[in-house]
From TrEMBL:
<comment type="function">
    <text>Cell adhesion-like membrane protein of the central nervous system (CNS) which modulates both the position and complexity of central neurons by altering their membrane morphology and dynamics. Involved in the formation of neuronal dendrites and protrusions including dendritic filopodia. In synaptogenesis, regulates synapse formation by altering dendritic spine morphology and actin distribution. Promotes formation of unstable neuronal spines such as thin and branched types. Regulates neuronal morphogenesis and migration during cortical development in the brain.</text>
</comment>
<dbReference type="InterPro" id="IPR003599">
    <property type="entry name" value="Ig_sub"/>
</dbReference>
<protein>
    <recommendedName>
        <fullName>V-set and transmembrane domain-containing protein 5</fullName>
    </recommendedName>
</protein>
<keyword id="KW-0325">Glycoprotein</keyword>
<comment type="subunit">
    <text>Can homooligomerize through cis interactions within the same cell membrane.</text>
</comment>
<dbReference type="InterPro" id="IPR036179">
    <property type="entry name" value="Ig-like_dom_sf"/>
</dbReference>
<keyword id="KW-0812">Transmembrane</keyword>
<feature type="transmembrane region" description="Helical">
    <location>
        <begin position="146"/>
        <end position="169"/>
    </location>
</feature>
<feature type="signal peptide">
    <location>
        <begin position="1"/>
        <end position="28"/>
    </location>
</feature>
<keyword id="KW-0966">Cell projection</keyword>
<dbReference type="GO" id="GO:1904891">
    <property type="term" value="P:positive regulation of excitatory synapse assembly"/>
</dbReference>
<feature type="transmembrane region" description="Helical">
    <location>
        <begin position="190"/>
        <end position="208"/>
    </location>
</feature>
<dbReference type="InterPro" id="IPR024303">
    <property type="entry name" value="NK_rcpt_2B4_Ig_dom"/>
</dbReference>
<keyword id="KW-1003">Cell membrane</keyword>
<keyword id="KW-1133">Transmembrane helix</keyword>
<dbReference type="GO" id="GO:0030424">
    <property type="term" value="C:axon"/>
</dbReference>
<dbReference type="Pfam" id="PF11465">
    <property type="entry name" value="Receptor_2B4"/>
</dbReference>
Length: 245
C-alpha cells in the first residue's frame, strides 16, 4: 500500500510547477506588453507655430510617461507624468507644454532653439519600458519677407509706369504747344510784312497824289519798314520776321 504523503507531495509539486509556469508567462507577457506607436517621426515647423508631438501606447496598468529634449547643448527633461495625475513640467517649458493621456504633448510658440530630438519613454510599474524619438525642425518665416519684397517691387513698377506715362503726355503737350506757337509766329510775321508793304505803298501813293517829290515819302516808307522790323526785336526771344523751324 502506497503512503498518503507521497501522493500529496506529487500534487503539490505539480501545482508549484504550474504556478511558476504561469508566473513566467505573465512576466513574459508583461515585458512584451509595452508598445509605442509614433505616426510622424519627423516634423517641420516655423517660428511661433504650435506643434503636436503625437504618439500612442498600449501597456498593462498605468505607466509613467517622460519626454526629454536632446540637442547639441545636451539632454533636458521636459515633462513627466502618469495619466490621470498632474504633470511635472520643467521650468524651461512652463506654460509652453500641454500633455495628453495617450502620451502626446503639444508645444506652443516654438522657436529656433526648439529644433532637435524629442525622446519619449513609457515605463510600466513592473519596470519594462519602451521609447521612441521624434525629430523637430524649426525654420524662420521667409515668405513674409518675400511677400513684402514682391509688393514693394510691384508698387515701384506701378509708380515708374505712371511717371513714364506722365512724361510722355507732357512731351506730347509741349510738342503740340511749340508747333502751335511756331504757326502763330509765322502768321504774325506775315501780318507784319503785309503792314510794312501797305504803309510803304501808302506813302508812295501819297507822294504822287500830292505831286510832291517822292524822295521824302520813300524815305518815310523805308523808315517805316526798318521800324517795323526793329521794334519786335526789343521783345526778348521774339522775332516775327525770322522764325525757327
Amino acid at each position: 500500500m502506497r503512503p498518503v504523503w507521497c501522493g500529496s507531495s506529487k500534487t503539490r509539486a505539480i501545482s508549484l510547477g504550474l504556478f511558476a509556469l504561469c508566473l513566467a508567462a505573465v512576466r513574459c507577457l508583461q515585458s512584451q506588453g509595452v508598445s509605442l506607436y509614433i505616426p510622424q517621426s519627423t516634423i517641420n515647423a516655423t517660428v511661433e507655430e504650435d506643434i503636436l508631438l503625437s504618439v500612442d501606447y498600449t501597456c498593462h496598468g498605468v505607466p509613467t510617461i517622460e519626454w526629454k529634449y536632446t540637442s547639441n547643448w545636451g539632454v533636458q527633461k521636459i515633462v513627466e507624468w502618469k495619466p490621470g495625475t498632474p504633470a511635472n513640467i520643467s521650468q524651461s517649458h512652463k506654460d509652453r507644454v500641454c500633455t495628453f493621456d495617450n502620451g502626446s504633448i503639444q508645444l506652443f510658440r516654438v522657436g529656433m532653439r526648439d529644433s532637435g530630438y524629442y525622446v519619449i519613454t513609457v515605463t510600466e510599474s513592473l519596470g519594462s519600458s519602451q521609447f521612441g524619438t521624434i525629430v523637430l525642425h524649426v525654420s524662420e518665416i521667409l515668405y513674409e519677407d518675400l511677400h513684402f519684397v514682391a509688393v514693394f517691387l510691384a508698387l515701384l513698377g506701378a509708380v515708374a509706369a505712371v511717371l513714364i506715362s506722365l512724361m510722355w503726355v507732357c512731351n506730347r503737350c509741349a510738342y503740340k504747344f511749340q508747333r502751335k506757337r511756331r504757326h502763330k509766329l509765322k502768321g504774325n510775321a506775315l501780318d507784319n510784312q503785309f503792314m510794312v508793304f501797305f504803309f510803304f505803298f501808302f506813302f508812295v501813293v501819297l507822294g504822287f497824289e500830292l505831286k510832291a517829290t517822292p524822295c521824302p515819302f520813300l524815305v518815310m516808307g523805308f523808315f517805316e519798314i526798318g521800324l517795323m522790323n526793329y521794334l519786335p526785336r526789343l521783345t526778348p526771344n521774339h522775332n516775327p520776321l525770322i522764325s525757327t523751324s
